[in-house]
């Protein structure tokens, strides 16, 4: 899951929402934005993640293996972007 933070500072935005969505889609991630300061959308981020894990049992199994994946050091998977499991708020 990719979460854009600090949406309460819209005037200081460096990455557009579209860029976040596109990046998440490229790596097959969920995407949402929130603000830890104002608590805007924070609870929904966790709820969406939990629902995705519950809907995809393999995510729970992979997460418990102790192996962490760093998407910033990996090449994106070669798949059709229209069939990726990405979603947006």
Describe this structure in words.
This protein has 89 residues and is mainly alpha-helical. It has one domain: 3-Layer(aba) Sandwich (Rossmann fold). Helix content is 35%, strand content 7%. It is built from 3 helices and 2 strands. A two-stranded parallel ribbon has the order 1-2. Helix 1 links the parallel strand 1 and strand 2. The longest helix has 14 residues. It is globular and about 40 Å long.
Which topology does CATH recognise?
A: Rossmann fold
Determine the strand fraction and express it as a percent band.
5-15%
Mean pLDDT: 79
Number of helical runs? 3
Distance between the termini: 12 Å
Q: Write out the CATH superfamily name.
A: P-loop containing nucleotide triphosphate hydrolases
The largest β sheet comes out as:
2 strands, parallel
């Amino acid at each position: 899951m990719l979460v854009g933070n600090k949406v309460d500072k819209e005037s200081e935005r460096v990455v557009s929402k579209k860029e976040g969505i596109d990046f998440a889609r490229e790596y097959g991630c969920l995407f949402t934005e929130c603000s830890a300061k104002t608590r805007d959308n924070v609870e929904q981020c966790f709820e969406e993640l939990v629902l995705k894990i519950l809907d995809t049992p393999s995510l729970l199994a992979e997460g418990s293996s102790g192996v962490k994946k760093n998407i910033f050091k990996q090449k994106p998977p070669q798949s059709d972007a229209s069939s990726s499991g990405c979603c947006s708020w």
